[in-house]
Backbone:
């Protein structure tokens, strides 16, 4: 009884302080799927050009060395772990992910991938989403060997999942080159519908594999990243066509998630409006303490948006002043703004609930 009272009081204090409590008795596992926005090093173990294994990547990471993250420091998944008081998840391909580390969860994400298997073909060896799900199955087998089949099932059921897909299906597939295969096969509205139908199968598969709390991020404002400003913009305005793609895709993703939850009969999937989270600081960077949302901190050419971030690239001295770290990826500070909305954002940002609400509900179950 006393322990229950302590738990209730602790939960109440956490709600007052705006934090999220994780029971000392049960550390919730965290599983991450997706692309370079959340990859924390899997591609370093692969023969692929989609890598972030050279300076200045990682310049603001605690070790000040490249880690495989496409960031100057922490990515979205890292910050969620940090805010939950969890150990950071390890890349699933890391040989260090053994023993008790399996209980923390795992990161299966791989830079360059998309919803479709042909997305990112130019990067050669990357872990496409169905391969990531296959690795999740393998993870569960390893976990079962350690804590038993029933223990593993419960651990996965009680875990938190983050999945980030979709952007590459546009920038590294449909719009990769003029007259791409997919753009000749589909008009844009039909392509978006096809992506949504394929994504639904992926999310349903995640559910069938035991995922019960899944944050699903939409695409950001793809036409506003420095890479696309450099390639497509004459006056610094966001590219109209890529913005049109995002405006078609994101509402349909939200509708699909609502329908899937209704079919299951539970709010398993939580839609994160990454588009609006980004647009807040893209259109008003000064309000968030940035000097620019058009120029990448690291890069070259117009808007520092051409090519990759390399040791020879232009590099800003203060990463906290830039919304974008490289031509495609937000800075750690921008990622922290995004994660704050994931935790506490209104239903304009998180639907049907934010992560803090979800955690509070689960703590009472």
Residues:
């Amino acid at each position: 009884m006393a322990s229950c009272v302590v738990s209730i009081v602790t939960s109440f204090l956490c709600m007052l302080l705006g934090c999220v409590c994780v029971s000392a008795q049960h550390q919730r596992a965290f599983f991450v799927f997706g692309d370079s926005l959340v990859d924390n090093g899997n591609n370093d173990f692969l023969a692929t050009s989609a890598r972030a294994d050279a300076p200045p990547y990682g310049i603001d990471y605690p070790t000040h060395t490249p880690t495989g993250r496409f960031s100057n420091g922490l990515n979205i998944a890292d910050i969620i772990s940090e805010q939950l008081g969890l150990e950071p998840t390890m890349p699933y391909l890391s040989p260090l992910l053994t023993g008790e580390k399996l209980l923390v969860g795992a990161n299966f994400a791989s830079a360059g991938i998309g919803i479709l298997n042909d997305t990112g073909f130019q990067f050669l060896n990357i872990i496409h989403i169905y391969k990531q799900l296959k690795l999740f199955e393998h993870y569960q087998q390893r976990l079962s060997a350690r804590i038993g089949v029933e223990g593993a099932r419960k651990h996965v059921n009680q875990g938190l999942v983050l999945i980030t897909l979709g952007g590459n299906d546009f920038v590294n597939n449909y719009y990769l080159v003029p007259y791409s295969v997919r753009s000749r096969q589909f008009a844009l509205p039909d392509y978006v519908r096809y992506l949504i139908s394929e994504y639904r199968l992926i999310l349903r598969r995640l559910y069938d594999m035991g995922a019960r709390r899944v944050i699903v991020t939409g695409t950001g404002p793809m036409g506003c990243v420095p890479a696309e400003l450099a390639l497509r913009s004459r006056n610094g305005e966001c590219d109209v066509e890529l913005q049109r793609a995002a405006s078609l895709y994101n509402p349909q993703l939200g509708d699909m998630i609502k329908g899937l939850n209704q079919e299951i009969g539970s709010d398993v999937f939580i839609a994160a409006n990454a588009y609006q989270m980004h647009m807040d600081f893209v259109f008003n960077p000064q309000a968030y303490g940035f000097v620019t949302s058009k120029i990448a901190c690291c890069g070259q050419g117009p808007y520092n948006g051409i090519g990759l971030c390399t040791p020879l690239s232009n590099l800003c001295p203060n990463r906290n002043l830039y919304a974008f770290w490289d031509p495609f990826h937000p800075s750690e500070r921008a990622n922290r703004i995004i994660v704050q909305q994931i935790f506490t954002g209104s239903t304009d940002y998180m639907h049907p609930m934010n992560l803090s609400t979800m955690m509070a509900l689960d703590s009472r179950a």
